[in-house]
Amino acid sequence: MSRQHLADAARSLERAAEAAEHDAADRLRQQSEQFSTLADADRGPDHGKLARHEHVLAEVADEEGGRVADRVDDAIESIHAYRETLEGV
């Protein structure tokens, strides 16, 4: 399994946080930190955990729109690429 996709998602989310303001920026930074941690963890996240992250990210992207949404979409693409390497759903 390639954890590089998770690291890529973390970087995209950090860029999204830089483009966002206030609460959205904080939420995106938290998500970025979590993906950085997941990328370095001994065991990667499962589909359920990733789906919960995607839900939060989609919510922020819908609220913010524009450049923030574009960068969140980049992160979601990286998450999907990682999920393709997982067994199950």
Walk me through this protein's architecture.
- With 89 residues, the protein is mostly helical.
- Helices cover 80% and strands 0% of the residues.
- The protein has helices at residues 4-19, 22-40, 47-64, 66-83.
- The protein is globular and about 35 Å long.
Q: Count the domains.
A: 1
**Structural category:** mainly alpha
Radius of gyration: 12 Å
Q: Order of helices and strands, N to C?
A: HHHH
- What's the count of strands? 0
Percent range of helical residues: over 70%
Provide the β-strand percentage band: under 5%
- How many angstroms does the end-to-end distance come to? 16 Å
Ranges with pLDDT <50 over ≥5 residues?
Answer: none
Average predicted confidence as pLDDT: 94
Broad shape: globular
